[in-house]
Amino acid sequence: MRRRGRDGDNGDSGDSGGDIGRAEGTAGAARQKRAQHSWLPWLLRTLLLTLLLGYISVPFLIRLFPSLLTKFVYLNFLAFPFFVDFRRPELLVNNTISLYLTTEPGVTVGIWHTVPSSRGAEAQGKDQRWYEEALADAHPVIIYLHGNGGTRAASHRVQFLKTMGAADFHILALDYRGYADSTGHPSENGFTTDVLALYDWTKARSGNSSILFWGHSLGTGIATNAARKLQEERGVQVGAVVLESPYTNIRDAGANIHITKIYRQFPGFEYLILDSMARAGMFFPSDENVKVLSCPLLILHAEDDGVLPPKLGRKLYETAREAYKDKSKVKFITFPEKLGLGHDYISFNPELPALVKDFLNMK
Predict the structure, then answer these.
(1) What is the dihedral of CA 237, 362, 344, 170, to 10 degrees?
(2) Closest listed residue to residue 270, CA positions, set 256, 285, 288
(3) Strand order in the sheet with 211-216
(4) Which is catalytic among the residues 168, 194, 305, 344?
(5) Is residue 5 very low, low, confident or very high in pLDDT (cuts 50, 70, 90)?
(6) 67 carries an active-site annotation
(7) Global pTM?
(8) How many CB atoms are closer than 10 A to CB 136?
């Protein structure tokens, strides 16, 4: 009887041991789960605190080191499309050669020259000398000034060369200093120097052909800077200025572009960020420049521009129209939202050449 009791006792002890093991396992799992839950809030708090500190720090860093702003405005480090052989533009667009121009000691800019499509057959296999001589063939010449990011090989810029080349314009598309295969470092004054050097080079070869400045986005401010300097310092009027997707000045542009939206309600936004643009040597005052110009001025803006709102283009037009004595020299054309042209794709509109030629009284 006692043996059975002892055996029974042993059996009960085994069951108790199993229960204890299961309890300890359950407790261990619970501790592990609690540990996991304990570090997740800490990680989340740390991440949010880091983001908050970064958000708060940026405006003060910009105020202390305004040159940082040039990295956001001059996106020359975004050299898209990548792996382009700039010396072989014919891989992207017909009737085009690459050339290089020294604009000042130590600065050489890369340029693509597209000749009118009507001369495409002649252009096959021709060298740079032939292209230079072709500038005097009485077809108007566009000096094309692109926006702040990428290179002259970007798809919408290549499309511009194709569109306006087919409309019998010469196009000289340059990459400013510090962009693509051009040497030097970006600066507002440096851009003006580059454009005027290209203008002088072109004028020396184009005879009586009309020369136009065509700026897109950031390039609109560069175009008006160069046109104003030509007029004020040399008494020379450029043939016309075309501003595609423009802004009034770089401060207004900074206040309206989407990247600054998260800071517009930040206390001191204007002082810390917008005012720092001037401290970084960036002005691009197209609204002041157009008050001085007297050449034909055409402003183009898409209603669905999500980068620089069309209200800036309209404001610039109104400023110019008020200042111009001959109001017929100023025109503002908008493109409806349904076309989907946005900020970069006005050159894809097949009606663009006819609109420009009509403004310039060309056949």
Answers:
(1) -70
(2) 256
(3) 96-104, 107-114, 170-174, 141-145, 211-216, 240-244, 297-302, 330-335
(4) 305
(5) very low
(6) no
(7) 0.88
(8) 13
